[in-house]
Design brief:
Radius of gyration: 24 Å
Mean pLDDT: 80
Largest sheet: 7 strands, mixed
Low-confidence stretches: 1-59, 94-128, 214-225, 337-359
Shape: globular
Strand content: 35-45%
Oligomer: single chain
Strand order of the largest sheet: 1-18-20-19-15-14-5
Number of helices: 5
Helix content: under 10%
Distance between the termini: 42 Å
């Protein structure tokens, strides 16, 4: 058996207030029985009222380690049978709802999985928040943007100041920073489903997703030094897998695959603290589909009764061997649950966290398996949180699981909790001084929706709600969130952009400090020091709320009760990848410069270099990687005074102190 340990996620996607389309309800009901988070076993009795104060939701019931595979099978069997019974009893209503296509009408009693994904101790306005800045042997290095300092996020480019490693179109490239940088080594990983990476010493840890039939999606590189394709991986024995590939960079001219494995399930997110990499993988056992496909209730019950506990464990493909990842005793079950209580008891696997440590090979994965959905992942330096938004008769709710990751060994489950409403993305979560702050959009009530802050206590064995603040933007949904120390900033939107400032110094009594309304809305917020906040988002017609272009705003938040928009840059008809992926943004605190890629249409455009000068935004430069259609810089970073940008065509370099024309390294 592969090494295992016993323990106790690109989000941003939202679902409409009415939940899934009716045609999807039958499909999701049975699947939710198997993929629901263990937290879903609770029967919280809160009302998702957006503007009226509500009591904090009940905590999720505690989890317990499964005794054996029969224990795992029993939990799954009960859940599937209950789900099948509810599905067939509601079938007529569901079909009628589908025929009538009534938006927002949910089948009563169904609980459906939704689809979305330490360093918080930074003083308000500190520009270090969300950036990766370090000195590597005296070399200035500002890596790609991350949410928390000292918590790395897998990305398509990494640098340690000595080299740059990129992955584009399935090809890994190494550029040594030796005074005359060029592509020194290339490795075709197209068949390894390579998507993003961490740089760990002289190794690259490459992560991707693959399907049972792996097909090359890009042509092999042209012949040349270091362009030999990597060995073909073994065909996947399961429908979907998360691939983990270790590439040695000891010889930069010949990057070499030293190990590869595929874990059953979809990759949600990855984080690295120090040299410890942790992955979150989401999986759905085939039995859920089999129950769904049953032609009648009797057959559905027969399928549910045939569940085998060991077959529910995730599998791993390693060195040509297919094995179960861990054992049934590594699975955490709901300590006490009633599958008829309007929720689905959990069964594995859904949130699987694997740990890689320095010196470990892929034989030493340490899975901790809890049963459930995983849409969003947030991490501090000492904890990792897996969250998912679910819909039931009370509306959406967000369930959160906390794992202690303070050591180098297996992650340890330490508690679970629930907050009303639906999560936006990872920036909606923040840990500070024993509390997890969660911002959601709640649906229902006289105004339809609004923002809500829920504070969960992280120091007990459950994440109990200890504070909340309702009514942020009545009739509006949350568009962006940023936590900076004891302050929180929330943007909601319908036709204008209310920016709210929250006082979070007392976790049990959060307060609204101020509100600023302006046209448009920010999709990403970044603290830039001296009480200033930079927002990247969309301009909009204040009468209709229709978006009209890209908007970058500079906010003065020194007095939260009297916030002001000091300056703005508006580009009609444009947008920015930053709105969907914060890693596309760069903040260089030492030079007071931001880099914002711009899509002028069709995925084409420059990267704008903007300087914060006092209370103004100065447009410094436009960095372009040619005029080809569909080309815009995807990432930016700084090494030793050089500002680098990455596009699918190659790398560009320009002086960070005076950006302008770029030296291009083609791919």
């Amino acid at each position: 058996m592969v090494g295992h340990g016993r323990g106790r996620d690109r989000s941003g996607h939202q679902r409409r207030a009415g939940g899934p389309r009716p045609g999807r309800r039958l499909q999701q009901a049975a699947a939710a029985a198997v993929v629901a988070l263990a937290a879903a076993g609770c029967t919280a009795d809160w009302d998702a009222a957006p503007v009226f104060p509500v009591e904090p939701p009940a905590a999720v019931e505690s989890l317990r380690a499964a005794e054996d595979c029969d224990d795992v099978a029993g939990a799954a069997r009960s859940a599937l049978e209950a789900a099948a019974a509810r599905m067939w009893s509601a079938r007529d209503d569901a079909v009628r709802t589908f025929d009538e296509d009534v938006p927002g009408e949910a089948v009563a009693g169904w609980d459906m999985a939704g689809a979305g994904d330490g360093a918080a101790d930074v003083p308000p306005g500190d520009e270090r928040a969300g950036s990766v800045e370090r000195e590597a042997a005296g070399t200035e290095v500002i890596g790609t943007n991350t949410q928390e300092a000292d918590v790395d996020e897998a990305d398509i480019v990494k640098t340690d100041g000595r080299r740059i490693v990129t992955i584009t179109d399935g090809v890994l490239r190494v550029v040594e920073l030796d005074g005359s940088p060029a592509v020194d080594g290339t490795l075709d990983l197209g068949d390894h489903a390579a998507a993003e990476l961490f740089l760990r010493g002289d190794d690259a840890v490459v992560i991707g997703s693959a399907h049972a039939t792996v097909q090359r999606t890009v042509p092999a590189p042209l012949p040349g030094p270091g362009t030999e394709p990597a060995p073909m991986p073994e065909p996947l024995p399961f429908p979907t897998g998360t691939t983990i590939t270790i590439v040695s960079l000891a010889d930069p001219t010949t990057p070499t695959v030293t190990a590869t494995a595929s874990v059953e399930g979809s990759h949600v997110a990855a984080r690295m603290v120090g040299t410890t990499v942790r992955l979150v993988v989401r999986g759905e056992p085939q039995v859920a589909t089999d129950v769904l496909a049953a032609p009648d209730p009797a057959t559905a019950r027969e399928v549910a009764a045939s569940v085998d506990g060991e077959e529910l464990l995730p599998r791993i493909l390693l060195d040509g061997r297919v094995e179960r990842l861990g054992g049934c005793s590594d699975v955490l079950l709901l300590a006490a649950g009633d599958p008829d209580a309007g929720s689905f008891a959990p069964s594995p696997p859904l949130a699987t966290i694997t740990t890689l440590t320095v010196g470990d090979d892929l034989e030493e994965l340490h899975p901790v398996t809890i049963q459930g959905a995983a849409d969003t992942v947030y991490a501090s330096t000492g904890a990792l949180y897996v969250a998912a938004t679910r819909w039931d008769g009370q509306g959406p709710r967000t369930e959160v699981h906390r794992f202690d990751t303070s050591g180098d060994g297996p992650a340890t489950h330490t508690g679970s909790g629930v907050a009303p409403g639906r999560l936006l993305n990872q920036f909606s979560l923040s840990e500070r001084e024993g509390a997890l702050r969660v911002v959601t959009t709640v649906d229902g009530g006289p105004t339809g929706m609004s923002g809500r802050l829920t504070v969960l206590d992280t120091e007990g064995d459950t994440l109990d709600a200890i504070g909340h603040l309702d009514g942020l933007g009545p009739g509006e949904e949350v568009k962006s969130v940023r936590f900076v120390g004891d302050l929180g900033y929330v943007v909601t939107f319908r036709t204008t952009d209310p920016l709210y400032a929250l006082d979070l110094s007392d976790a049990r009594n959060p307060r609204l400090l101020g509100e600023l309304k302006i046209p448009g809305f920010s999709q990403y917020l970044h603290p830039v020091g001296d009480g200033l906040l930079l927002g990247v988002g969309r301009d909009a017609d204040p009468r209709t709320g229709m978006t009209t272009g890209l908007k970058v705003s500079l906010f003065d938040v020194r007095d939260p009760a009297a916030m002001a928009e000091l300056d703005q840059l508006v580009l009609p008809g444009a947008s920015s990848p930053v709105g969907d992926d914060h890693r596309a943004f760069l903040w260089d605190a030492g030079r007071d410069q931001a880099v914002v890629p711009v899509d002028l249409g069709g995925g084409s455009g420059p990267a704008l270099v903007l300087r914060v000068s006092g209370q103004r935004l100065e447009r410094v430069a436009e960095l372009r990687h040619g005029d080809a259609v569909g080309v815009t810089p995807l990432r930016a970073f700084v090494v030793d005074g050089d500002l680098w940008t990455l596009s699918r065509l190659g790398l560009g370099r320009t002086p960070a102190d005076a950006p302008g024309a770029i030296d291009h390294i083609g791919f």
